[in-house]
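Standup notes
- DV: blocked on the single-chain target, sequence here:
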Amino acid sequence: MGLSNSILFYSHGGFIMAGLIQELKEHHTHLLSILQLAKINGFATLETRELLRSARTTLLDHLRKEDLELYPVLHTAATKNPAIKETLDTFARDMAETSKVAIGFFKKWDQGGTDHNLSKEFGLLQAKLLSRIRREEELLYPLYEQLSAKNAA
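- DV (later): unblocked, structure below
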């Protein structure tokens, strides 16, 4: 990631790139807010249809950004560090399961699912995303920031 796309902060003796991580965290906040509104409104409303379209777009944009900017840095580090490789392997397995849940929900929703038959899948999707987001923000993003600070030094 080039410095032109990042904001640098001096923190505890080193510079950290805040642009990408801040943007990814904003995606998380936006996505969780959209899902909460959809849950409150029910799945049959026009507003919820728009919210869920937005959620799908936000999720896909977020994943694309991670694939293009976050994971290359982590994969490079993983070639030299088995612990990082293990962490990435765990996240990859988790993402496969989370993706399956998301695809299943949006497929049912696209087919005109009702509140009753979507609520279980939606609850599972919301729980999976919340867990994933929490783990990314607690483990993956600090690791990225640490690696980026070393690369910038």
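- Follow-up: Residues 9 and 15 are 5 Å apart (CA to CA).
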